[in-house]
């Protein structure tokens, strides 16, 4: 391939909106409905454009512009450290240059059909905190779960930990349990139910929760408490003793440096580092495969992340599920990705296959972003 030079970098946040207001988790009362999705677009000297989620600032963009794609990207290792501020845009560009979807770059295979990536709905937050009555609260979350099922989801994640801050401990735990049981009842036996405490439990509360919901067949418990040798070891041992077949998932946000070692020791089953380190995942995923640890990147407020995460399923054997946060963003067309029967149908299009409306993006760049160019 001839040298490909990046002559222009443009950046702007686009306006994103969730399907409905996302309320609380264990430590916040509302995530709101609107969010900003930062997008960088790169243009090569030949005029080819690619784009992706990026938090690059003007100073960094100024220091990079004019670089050679071949210096920044390696087919096996992905984006080099100095260029990680453009991680996803450069993966998109790699796909466009090769005229292949990113998942094919990762698998090294040419797929004859579109990729189907397993996914779960992540929208069952604590929308019930203003309600006094537990039954009413449980019905509300169950009705939301049913709506998610009509959009094609078969796996559902419920936020728990109401008693960490929003309600007294005992009342919060009682409502968490009631909600889980109501969702199970509404969805039936086939649905996969995940629960996420955002570190709002402790070891004893986690044990109590799983004892009282043993008949709800929970697939994984995520961040029951901040991961530690002191608690995760005994927790896993207890699960085994109880015969509870529940996976322990952890790793989003500020994870312990010991997380991977804990996983290697069998204390954590599913690793959930953020999707926005796409290259990190490309490197880490196969290593986790080799030691039989499951992968499920954390993704929140990231319409772009919904779509990008799917591609990792092409390169990581033990890829569990995409965390799907239903949303739209003005100027970004993701309609080629569709959900059916618990999977995302991933388009067989170059790069990540998403479309950016040039007029909307350029207006956003003028209003609140920047352009740096080499010329
Ligand atoms: Mg989480």
TrEMBL record:
Q: Which InterPro entries match?
A: DgoD-like, Enolase-like_C_sf, Enolase-like_N, Enolase_C-like, Mandelate_racemase_C
Keywords carried by this UniProt record: Metal-binding
Q: Name one GO molecular function term.
A: metal ion binding
Query: SMART domains, per this entry?
Result: MR_MLE
As recorded in UniProt, coiled-coil segments are none
Q: Where is the Mandelate racemase/muconate lactonizing enzyme C-terminal domain?
A: 138-246
What PANTHER family has UniProt attached to this entry?
D-GALACTONATE DEHYDRATASE-RELATED (PTHR48080), ENOLASE SUPERFAMILY MEMBER DDB_G0284701 (PTHR48080:SF3)
Similarity comment: Belongs to the mandelate racemase/muconate lactonizing enzyme family.
Q: What is this protein called?
A: Mandelate racemase/muconate lactonizing enzyme C-terminal domain-containing protein
Q: Which organism is it from?
A: marine sediment metagenome
């Amino acid at each position: 391939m001839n040298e490909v030079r990046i002559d222009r970098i443009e950046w702007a946040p686009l306006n994103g909106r969730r399907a409905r207001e996302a309320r609380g988790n264990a430590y916040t009362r509302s995530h709101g409905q609107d969010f900003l999705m930062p997008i960088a677009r790169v243009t090569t000297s030949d005029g080819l454009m690619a784009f992706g989620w990026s938090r690059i600032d003007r100073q960094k963009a100024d220091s990079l512009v004019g670089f050679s794609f071949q210096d920044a990207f390696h087919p096996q290792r992905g984006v080099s450290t100095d260029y990680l501020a453009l991680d996803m845009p450069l993966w998109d560009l790699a796909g466009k240059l090769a005229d292949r979807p990113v998942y094919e770059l990762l698998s090294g295979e040419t797929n004859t059909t579109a990729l189907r990536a397993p996914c779960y709905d992540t929208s069952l937050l604590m929308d019930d905190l203003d309600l006094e009555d537990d039954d009413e609260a449980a019905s509300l979350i169950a009705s939301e779960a049913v709506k998610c099922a009509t959009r094609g989801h078969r796996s559902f994640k419920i936020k728990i930990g109401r008693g960490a801050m929003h309600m007294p401990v005992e009342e919060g735990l009682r409502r968490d349990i009631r909600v889980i049981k109501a969702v199970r009842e509404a969805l039936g036996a086939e649905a996969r139910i995940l629960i996420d405490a955002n570190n709002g439990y402790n070891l004893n509360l986690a044990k109590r929760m799983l004892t009282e919901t043993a008949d709800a067949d929970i697939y994984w418990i995520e961040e029951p408490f901040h991961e530690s040798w002191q608690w995760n070891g005994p927790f896993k041992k207890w699960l085994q003793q109880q015969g509870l077949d529940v996976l322990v998932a952890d790793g989003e946000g500020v994870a312990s440096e010991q997380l991977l070692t804990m996983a290697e020791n069998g204390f954590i089953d599913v690793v959930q580092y953020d999707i926005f380190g796409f290259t990190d995942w490309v490197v880490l995923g196969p290593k986790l495969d080799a030691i039989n640890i499951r992968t499920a990147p954390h993704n929140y407020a990231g319409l772009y992340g919904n779509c990008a995460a799917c591609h990792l399923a092409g390169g990581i054997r033990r890829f569990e599920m995409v965390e799907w946060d239903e949303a739209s963003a003005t100027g970004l067309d993701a309609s080629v990705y569709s959900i059916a029967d618990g999977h995302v149908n991933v388009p067989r299009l170059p790069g990540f296959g998403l479309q950016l409306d040039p007029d909307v993006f350029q207006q956003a760049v003028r209003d609140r972003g920047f352009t740096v160019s080499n010329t």
